[in-house]
Protein backbone atom coordinates (compact mmCIF):
# COMPACT_ATOMS: atom_id res chain seq x y z
CA UNK A 1 0.00 0.00 0.00
CA UNK A 2 1.24 3.49 -0.89
CA UNK A 3 0.49 6.43 1.44
CA UNK A 4 0.82 10.00 0.16
CA UNK A 5 1.48 11.83 3.39
CA UNK A 6 1.12 15.61 3.71
CA UNK A 7 3.78 17.20 5.94
CA UNK A 8 4.21 20.71 7.46
CA UNK A 9 4.85 23.75 5.25
CA UNK A 10 6.86 25.45 8.00
CA UNK A 11 5.62 24.77 11.49
CA UNK A 12 6.67 21.21 12.36
CA UNK A 13 3.69 20.79 14.67
CA UNK A 14 1.30 20.89 11.70
CA UNK A 15 1.19 17.14 11.21
CA UNK A 16 -1.70 14.84 12.00
CA UNK A 17 -1.60 11.90 14.39
CA UNK A 18 -2.60 9.68 11.49
CA UNK A 19 0.30 10.96 9.35
CA UNK A 20 2.72 10.19 12.20
CA UNK A 21 1.34 6.71 12.73
CA UNK A 22 1.61 5.96 9.00
CA UNK A 23 5.22 7.19 8.99
CA UNK A 24 5.90 5.02 12.03
CA UNK A 25 4.42 1.81 10.69
CA UNK A 26 5.56 1.97 7.04
CA UNK A 27 8.48 -0.10 5.73
CA UNK A 28 10.14 2.88 4.04
CA UNK A 29 9.63 6.56 3.31
CA UNK A 30 10.17 8.05 -0.13
CA UNK A 31 11.24 11.67 0.22
CA UNK A 32 12.52 14.56 -1.90
CA UNK A 33 15.40 15.48 0.38
CA UNK A 34 16.52 13.04 3.07
CA UNK A 35 18.04 15.88 5.17
CA UNK A 36 14.77 17.80 5.21
CA UNK A 37 12.66 14.76 6.10
CA UNK A 38 15.18 13.69 8.78
CA UNK A 39 14.46 16.94 10.65
CA UNK A 40 10.77 16.05 10.84
CA UNK A 41 11.45 12.43 11.81
CA UNK A 42 13.91 13.48 14.51
CA UNK A 43 11.35 15.78 16.09
CA UNK A 44 8.92 12.87 16.39
CA UNK A 45 11.64 10.35 17.29
CA UNK A 46 11.02 8.15 14.28
CA UNK A 47 13.83 6.10 12.78
CA UNK A 48 13.04 4.97 9.27
CA UNK A 49 14.62 3.97 6.00
CA UNK A 50 14.55 7.01 3.72
CA UNK A 51 14.64 6.58 -0.06
CA UNK A 52 15.33 9.65 -2.24
CA UNK A 53 12.45 10.30 -4.60
CA UNK A 54 12.63 13.63 -6.44
CA UNK A 55 11.96 15.12 -9.84
CA UNK A 56 15.31 13.89 -11.18
CA UNK A 57 14.87 10.19 -10.30
CA UNK A 58 11.08 9.99 -10.10
CA UNK A 59 10.62 8.11 -13.39
CA UNK A 60 13.64 5.84 -12.98
CA UNK A 61 12.72 4.82 -9.43
CA UNK A 62 9.10 4.01 -10.27
CA UNK A 63 9.45 0.38 -11.33
CA UNK A 64 11.37 -0.61 -8.18
CA UNK A 65 8.78 1.06 -5.98
CA UNK A 66 5.94 -0.66 -7.83
CA UNK A 67 7.73 -3.97 -7.27
CA UNK A 68 7.84 -3.29 -3.52
CA UNK A 69 4.15 -2.36 -3.51
CA UNK A 70 3.22 -5.50 -5.46
CA UNK A 71 5.06 -7.58 -2.85
CA UNK A 72 2.87 -6.08 -0.13
CA UNK A 73 5.23 -3.47 1.32
CA UNK A 74 3.83 -0.37 3.02
CA UNK A 75 5.47 2.72 1.56
CA UNK A 76 4.94 6.37 2.48
CA UNK A 77 5.69 9.24 0.13
CA UNK A 78 6.39 12.73 1.48
CA UNK A 79 7.66 15.87 -0.22
CA UNK A 80 9.85 18.58 1.30
CA UNK A 81 6.74 20.41 2.46
CA UNK A 82 3.00 20.20 2.06
CA UNK A 83 1.00 17.77 -0.03
CA UNK A 84 2.77 15.34 -2.38
CA UNK A 85 1.80 15.64 -6.06
CA UNK A 86 0.96 19.37 -5.74
CA UNK A 87 3.87 20.82 -7.70
CA UNK A 88 5.86 18.02 -6.10
CA UNK A 89 6.75 14.46 -7.09
CA UNK A 90 4.20 11.66 -6.89
CA UNK A 91 1.73 12.01 -9.72
CA UNK A 92 3.45 9.45 -11.98
CA UNK A 93 3.48 6.93 -9.15
CA UNK A 94 -0.21 7.50 -8.43
CA UNK A 95 -1.02 7.02 -12.11
CA UNK A 96 0.98 3.78 -12.15
CA UNK A 97 -0.92 2.54 -9.07
CA UNK A 98 -4.22 3.36 -10.79
CA UNK A 99 -3.09 1.50 -13.93
CA UNK A 100 -2.00 -1.58 -12.00
CA UNK A 101 -4.82 -1.57 -9.47
CA UNK A 102 -2.36 -1.14 -6.56
CA UNK A 103 -3.77 0.23 -3.32
CA UNK A 104 -2.93 3.79 -2.34
CA UNK A 105 -4.38 6.56 -0.24
CA UNK A 106 -3.61 10.16 0.75
CA UNK A 107 -3.21 11.33 4.33
CA UNK A 108 -4.45 14.93 4.32
CA UNK A 109 -2.61 17.88 5.81
CA UNK A 110 -1.03 21.23 4.93
CA UNK A 111 -1.10 22.55 1.39
CA UNK A 112 0.26 26.04 0.76
CA UNK A 113 -2.23 27.06 -1.89
CA UNK A 114 -5.25 26.18 0.24
CA UNK A 115 -3.70 27.82 3.30
CA UNK A 116 -3.08 30.99 1.24
CA UNK A 117 -6.61 30.99 -0.14
CA UNK A 118 -8.06 30.84 3.36
CA UNK A 119 -5.74 33.61 4.63
CA UNK A 120 -6.47 35.90 1.68
CA UNK A 121 -10.18 36.21 2.37
CA UNK A 122 -10.75 36.11 -1.43
CA UNK A 123 -13.58 34.14 -3.04
CA UNK A 124 -13.03 30.51 -2.10
CA UNK A 125 -16.12 29.15 -3.85
CA UNK A 126 -14.42 29.36 -7.23
CA UNK A 127 -10.65 29.27 -7.66
CA UNK A 128 -7.93 28.05 -10.00
CA UNK A 129 -4.35 27.01 -9.28
CA UNK A 130 -1.84 28.05 -11.94
CA UNK A 131 1.40 26.58 -10.53
CA UNK A 132 4.37 28.96 -10.81
CA UNK A 133 3.17 32.24 -12.33
CA UNK A 134 4.27 32.92 -15.93
CA UNK A 135 7.71 34.48 -16.20
CA UNK A 136 7.61 36.17 -19.60
CA UNK A 137 5.14 38.20 -21.61
CA UNK A 138 1.72 39.38 -20.62
CA UNK A 139 -0.46 36.95 -22.61
CA UNK A 140 -0.52 34.14 -20.07
CA UNK A 141 -0.99 36.61 -17.23
CA UNK A 142 -3.86 38.29 -19.05
CA UNK A 143 -5.62 34.92 -19.34
CA UNK A 144 -5.20 34.38 -15.62
CA UNK A 145 -6.62 37.83 -14.91
CA UNK A 146 -9.74 37.01 -16.92
CA UNK A 147 -10.67 34.15 -14.61
CA UNK A 148 -13.77 35.19 -12.65
CA UNK A 149 -12.77 33.42 -9.40
CA UNK A 150 -9.55 33.62 -7.36
CA UNK A 151 -6.31 32.64 -9.11
CA UNK A 152 -3.56 31.15 -6.95
CA UNK A 153 0.07 30.84 -8.03
CA UNK A 154 3.53 30.31 -6.61
CA UNK A 155 6.07 33.11 -6.90
CA UNK A 156 9.70 33.62 -5.90
CA UNK A 157 10.79 36.60 -3.77
CA UNK A 158 13.09 37.77 -6.59
CA UNK A 159 10.26 37.93 -9.14
CA UNK A 160 7.43 39.16 -6.93
CA UNK A 161 7.72 42.90 -7.69
CA UNK A 162 7.96 42.35 -11.48
CA UNK A 163 4.91 40.09 -11.44
CA UNK A 164 2.92 42.58 -9.35
CA UNK A 165 3.89 45.39 -11.76
CA UNK A 166 2.81 43.25 -14.74
CA UNK A 167 -0.56 42.56 -13.10
CA UNK A 168 -0.93 46.28 -12.36
CA UNK A 169 -0.21 47.13 -16.01
CA UNK A 170 -3.09 44.89 -17.11
CA UNK A 171 -5.56 45.95 -14.45
CA UNK A 172 -4.59 48.79 -12.13
CA UNK A 173 -7.51 48.21 -9.76
CA UNK A 174 -7.13 44.45 -9.37
CA UNK A 175 -6.90 43.18 -5.79
CA UNK A 176 -4.13 40.77 -4.98
CA UNK A 177 -2.79 39.13 -1.84
CA UNK A 178 0.71 37.97 -1.00
CA UNK A 179 0.83 35.09 1.50
CA UNK A 180 4.40 34.76 2.72
CA UNK A 181 6.13 32.38 5.12
CA UNK A 182 2.85 30.81 6.17
CA UNK A 183 2.83 28.94 9.49
CA UNK A 184 6.35 30.27 10.22
CA UNK A 185 7.49 32.99 12.65
CA UNK A 186 7.30 35.81 10.11
CA UNK A 187 4.05 34.80 8.44
CA UNK A 188 2.26 37.63 6.67
CA UNK A 189 -0.66 38.00 4.33
CA UNK A 190 -0.73 41.43 2.70
CA UNK A 191 -3.64 42.59 0.56
CA UNK A 192 -4.05 45.57 -1.79
CA UNK A 193 -3.94 46.48 -5.45
CA UNK A 194 -1.04 45.04 -7.42
CA UNK A 195 0.72 48.40 -7.63
CA UNK A 196 0.29 49.12 -3.91
CA UNK A 197 1.93 45.81 -3.09
CA UNK A 198 4.64 46.29 -5.75
CA UNK A 199 5.52 49.65 -4.11
CA UNK A 200 5.62 48.01 -0.69
CA UNK A 201 7.84 45.10 -1.72
CA UNK A 202 10.14 47.37 -3.69
CA UNK A 203 10.83 49.26 -0.47
CA UNK A 204 10.89 46.11 1.68
CA UNK A 205 12.24 43.24 -0.44
CA UNK A 206 10.40 40.05 0.51
CA UNK A 207 12.13 36.94 1.83
CA UNK A 208 11.02 33.33 2.03
CA UNK A 209 8.27 31.40 0.35
CA UNK A 210 5.37 33.10 -1.36
CA UNK A 211 1.93 32.33 -2.72
CA UNK A 212 0.38 35.10 -4.82
CA UNK A 213 -3.39 35.37 -5.14
CA UNK A 214 -5.30 37.43 -7.67
CA UNK A 215 -8.93 38.23 -6.96
CA UNK A 216 -11.40 37.46 -9.74
CA UNK A 217 -12.26 40.11 -12.29
CA UNK A 218 -12.12 41.10 -15.91
CA UNK A 219 -9.38 42.69 -17.98
CA UNK A 220 -11.01 45.50 -19.94
CA UNK A 221 -12.05 43.61 -23.09
CA UNK A 222 -11.44 46.43 -25.53
CA UNK A 223 -7.73 46.17 -24.72
CA UNK A 224 -7.62 42.49 -25.62
CA UNK A 225 -6.94 41.53 -29.25
CA UNK A 226 -9.95 39.79 -30.81
CA UNK A 227 -8.19 36.48 -31.55
CA UNK A 228 -7.00 36.28 -27.92
CA UNK A 229 -10.48 37.04 -26.62
CA UNK A 230 -11.95 34.26 -28.77
CA UNK A 231 -9.31 31.82 -27.59
CA UNK A 232 -9.92 32.78 -23.98
CA UNK A 233 -13.68 32.42 -24.20
CA UNK A 234 -13.28 28.93 -25.66
CA UNK A 235 -10.42 27.66 -23.50
CA UNK A 236 -11.25 29.17 -20.16
CA UNK A 237 -14.99 29.44 -20.31
CA UNK A 238 -15.62 26.32 -22.39
CA UNK A 239 -17.68 28.08 -25.09
CA UNK A 240 -18.02 26.69 -28.61
CA UNK A 241 -16.53 28.82 -31.40
CA UNK A 242 -20.05 29.93 -32.37
CA UNK A 243 -20.88 30.99 -28.81
CA UNK A 244 -17.48 32.70 -28.44
CA UNK A 245 -18.04 34.71 -31.64
CA UNK A 246 -21.46 35.83 -30.41
CA UNK A 247 -20.15 36.90 -27.01
CA UNK A 248 -16.99 38.55 -28.38
CA UNK A 249 -19.11 40.60 -30.81
CA UNK A 250 -21.23 41.76 -27.90
CA UNK A 251 -18.26 42.54 -25.64
CA UNK A 252 -16.42 44.47 -28.33
CA UNK A 253 -19.52 46.04 -29.76
CA UNK A 254 -18.73 44.71 -33.25
CA UNK A 255 -20.98 43.14 -35.90
CA UNK A 256 -21.03 39.33 -35.59
CA UNK A 257 -20.02 39.00 -39.26
CA UNK A 258 -16.77 40.93 -38.62
CA UNK A 259 -15.87 38.72 -35.67
CA UNK A 260 -16.78 35.60 -37.69
CA UNK A 261 -14.47 36.72 -40.52
CA UNK A 262 -11.60 37.39 -38.12
CA UNK A 263 -12.15 34.06 -36.31
CA UNK A 264 -11.94 32.11 -39.54
CA UNK A 265 -8.93 34.08 -40.72
CA UNK A 266 -6.96 33.10 -37.62
CA UNK A 267 -8.07 29.41 -37.78
N1 LIG B 1 3.43 20.57 -2.36
C1 LIG B 1 3.57 21.87 -1.75
C2 LIG B 1 2.30 22.24 -1.01
O1 LIG B 1 1.40 21.40 -0.90
O2 LIG B 1 2.22 23.35 -0.50
C3 LIG B 1 4.01 22.91 -2.75
C4 LIG B 1 5.38 22.66 -3.31
S1 LIG B 1 5.95 23.89 -4.41
C5 LIG B 1 7.34 23.09 -5.12
C6 LIG B 1 6.76 25.02 -3.36
C7 LIG B 1 6.09 26.40 -3.36
O3 LIG B 1 4.99 26.38 -2.43
C8 LIG B 1 6.98 27.50 -2.85
O4 LIG B 1 7.80 28.00 -3.88
C9 LIG B 1 5.98 28.54 -2.38
O5 LIG B 1 5.47 29.26 -3.48
C10 LIG B 1 4.87 27.64 -1.82
N2 LIG B 1 5.03 27.48 -0.36
C11 LIG B 1 5.41 26.37 0.30
N3 LIG B 1 5.42 26.59 1.64
C12 LIG B 1 5.05 27.88 1.81
C13 LIG B 1 4.89 28.71 2.97
N4 LIG B 1 5.13 28.27 4.19
N5 LIG B 1 4.47 30.00 2.76
C14 LIG B 1 4.26 30.47 1.52
N6 LIG B 1 4.40 29.72 0.41
C15 LIG B 1 4.79 28.45 0.55
Sum up the overall morphology in one term: globular
Query: How many beta strands in the DSSP annotation?
Result: 10
Write the H/E string, N to C.
EHEHEHEHEHEHEHEEHEHHH
Task: Name the bound molecules.
Answer: S-adenosylmethionine
Reading off the top of the CATH hierarchy, the class of the largest domain is best stated as Alpha Beta
- The CATH topology label of the largest domain is Cobalt-precorrin-4 Transmethylase, domain 1
Count of helix runs = 11
Q: Radius of gyration over alpha carbons?
A: 22 Å
**Overall pLDDT level:** 93
The end-to-end distance, rounded to whole angstroms, is 49 Å
Q: Give helix % range.
A: 40-55%
Low-confidence stretches: none
CATH architecture title of the largest domain: 3-Layer(aba) Sandwich
Outline of the structure:
By secondary structure, the protein is α/β, with parallel strands linked by helices.
Pick out its properties:
267 residues, alpha/beta, Cobalt-precorrin-4 Transmethylase, domain 1, Methyltransferase, Cobalt-precorrin-4 Transmethylase, Domain 2, 5-stranded parallel sheet, 42% helix, 18% strand, globular, binds S-adenosylmethionine
Spell out the blueprint of helices and strands.
Blueprint: E1 2-5, H1 17-25, E2 28-31, H2 34-43, E3 50-52, H3 58-70, E4 75-77, H4 91-100, E5 104-107, H5 112-120, E6 127-132, H6 139-145, E7 150-155, H7 160-170, E8 175-180, E9 188-193, H8 194-203, E10 210-214, H9 226-235, H10 241-252, H11 256-265
Helix pairs in contact: 3-4, 7-8, 9-10, 10-11
Bound molecules: S-adenosylmethionine (SAM).
Structure description:
This protein is α/β, with parallel strands linked by helices and 267 residues long. The chain has three domains: 2-110, Tetrapyrrole methylase, N-terminal domain (Cobalt-precorrin-4 Transmethylase, domain 1, 3-Layer(aba) Sandwich), CATH 3.40.1010.10; 113-214, Tetrapyrrole methylase, C-terminal domain (Methyltransferase, Cobalt-precorrin-4 Transmethylase, Domain 2), CATH 3.30.950; 224-266, no CATH class. 42% of the residues lie in helices and 18% in strands. It contains eleven helices and ten strands. The chain has helices at residues 17-25, 34-43, 58-70, 91-100, 112-120, 139-145, 160-170, 194-203, 226-235, 241-252, 256-265, and strands at 2-5, 28-31, 50-52, 75-77, 104-107, 127-132, 150-155, 175-180, 188-193, 210-214. It has a five-stranded parallel sheet, with helices on both faces. Strands 6-7-10-8-9 form a five-stranded mixed sheet, with helices on both faces. The chain is globular, with a radius of gyration of 22 Å. It starts with a strand and ends with a helix. The structure holds S-adenosylmethionine. S-adenosylmethionine is lined by residues 9-10, 79, 81-83, 86-88, 111-112, 154, 179-184, 209-211.
